[in-house]
Amino acid sequence: MPRTEARADLLRAGPFRLALGFAAALSVGMLLIFGFIYWQTSEAETRRMRRDLVQEAALAAQTRDDILLYQLQVRIMTDYHRVTVAAWFDADGKLRYGNLDHLPPDLPVDDNGHRLTVQTTGADQPQPAILAAARRPDGGVVVLGRAMDELLALQRVVARTLIAGLLPAVALVLASGILGGARARRRVQTVEQTIGRIMGGDLRERLPVSGSRDGVDQLSARVNQMLDRIVHLLDEIRAVGDNIAHDLRTPLSVMRAKLERGLASSDAEALRRGAEAALADLDKAFGMITALLRIAELEDSRRQSGFTTVDLVEVAAEVFDLYEPLAEVKEVSLTREDTGPLFVVGDRDLLIEAVANLVDNAVKFTPDGGRIVIRTLMRDGAPAVQVADTGPGIPPDERAAVVRRLYRLDKSRHIQGNGLGLSLVQAIAGLHGFELDIGGDEGGAVVTMVCGPRHEPAQAAYANGI
Amino acid sequence: MPTLDPIAHIHLVEDEPEMAGEIITSLEAQGYAVSHSAAAAAALDFLRAERGVAVVVADRLLPGGMDGLEMVEVLRDEGIATPILVLSALGSVDDRVRGLNAGGDDYLTKPFAVTELVARIEALRRRPPDTRATTLRVGSLEMDLLSRTVRRGEREVPLLPREFKLLEYMMRRPDQVITPAMLLTDVWHYRFVPQTNVVDVHMGKLRHKIDEVGDLPMIHRVRGAGFMLRAAD
After folding, report:
1. Tens digits of per-residue pLDDT, B49-73?
2. Where would you find the membrane-spanning parts of this chain (chain A) (predicted)?
3. Residue B127 has what DSSP assignment?
4. Domain containing B213 — which CATH number?
5. Which of A294, A352, A363 sits opposite B196 (nearest CB)?
6. Are A27 and A170 a contacting pair, CB within 8 Å?
7. Contact B162 A286 (CB under 8 A)
8. Domain count, chain B
9. Residue B19 falls within a domain, yes or no?
10. How far apart are CA A415 and CA A392, in angstroms?
11. Are residues B159 and B200 in the same domain?
12. Sign of the C-alpha dihedral, residues A425, A426, A431, A433?
């Protein structure tokens, strides 16, 4: 990466920007504090001095000569720092007593404080001072003042302190910002490069996690989890793709054989029969594709807006009504067992479709003379609908697999069907947040859809907003 | 399965040339006169000028910014009441498409059997006016919609509620091929097609009740398509 671009990146990096902000805030804060101190020391102090001097001068102007003289003497003699200005002039301007040679020409005698530069007799150079002059009844003038040396020195100290404190602080903040920014930039770069590799097709790659548990780390961990899930889904899709290819290949090759045989035959009737049989196979293949798309549609669907209150007993009755004649023809007894209305929130049509698929399966797999029961019941505190049959049952180790798309038990391969019934039921249950429980034994399968909240870790985590 | 009436004019709106060719050939073989346009705009122009069209068959997905459903809306807004059968692509039967069924039009998902297409076209052509008659009659078969009783000649036919609804649907559409899919959507109001042939079994039971031993059959199986109710004489 070129240097200029790196610098631009650094400026964009979050920590550096934060540091800049901190530095600015710190500078403003310190300027405010020192500004206040400066203002306090210079302005307020000057004003106080000025006020005092004006008062004292006015007072001195009214004081008796001998006392005034004494007071001025005390003032000058106790002034070890040589900051006091005190002088008493005659009406004609001659110095009676004090440390000024003459009345400063630009000092108006107006009972007000003024800022002038004067040189006292003891000093080797003029210095800024605040002076107040007051006229005595005899026409004389009393000048009182105070040099501002001290004040100016204090102001200089304050300014120096400000600079001495502010500069290192700002430098420190900026330095840490640069360091932090560079570090964050390095981590972002690593993440970026990793994502680039992942997007390039290497889905096994994972983002680095430093273990510091900071924001970037947590984000990386979540992205890694997401990648795990994507890989899992992709594997599943790949498996489904293989299964589809395999399961479509079967009816297609049968169809091909039938057509070929029909064409090879000189008998027009044989050709017609072959074409008809091939058409039936084609419909089977289409049926499979339709069912797959339907499952995909259900799994994609997050839409639960069409949900209403549905009575499971009514759902069971609908399906019973639909399948009763078929069971009769197959000489299978189909019965219902209900205790009373069981209301759940869901899509009525989809629930009927789910239960119909369960009964469809049961009718297919139950041998003549067998029994099928559609039951509505309470299970684990939730309403449930159950279909039990006296068919061959589903072995426990294959129960997780049967809800997968296109999974068919080997021993059921000869029975008509596309192997999508239970995965469709699972998809409908999943859309509702219902649990599908496959049980039973060699004496028959018992499939229960528990229409209550499903406790799945991923969903629980989702609900907690992680 | 030849159509009974004088040649009915079907207008097909389908952009896929091969698919259009197949449908046209099949429909012409059934005795229909078929015209064709490849986009909704052309179809609208044609239908505005030509009012003798019996049924419009339109693909849902059409090029040129207007799909089949929008075309239906435009036609209805313009007061053209020709029944429309929308062909929707596999797996995309949404509520909008389903709404057609309620609005007097119909939909069919691809892929479909030609027999199904013809049955739907015939159903649209002869869609019965919603009469207020309380009695339906087909030959010697009589259905009283108020007392919910059915007689064939002198004999009363005891029917379960579902069988009654099935028969009512068929009696409103005599001499017409009714497919299992039509029964599932219109009588059962299901959006899905069960894997096993449950409808056939229901119809078998109904047929046993209507056509007893010795009667001339009224409910006929139409090979590869569905069922038909016809007067026995």
Report:
1. 988 899 999 998 888 888 888 888 8
2. 20-41, 157-179
3. P
4. 1.10.10.10
5. A363
6. yes
7. no
8. 2
9. yes
10. 12
11. yes
12. positive
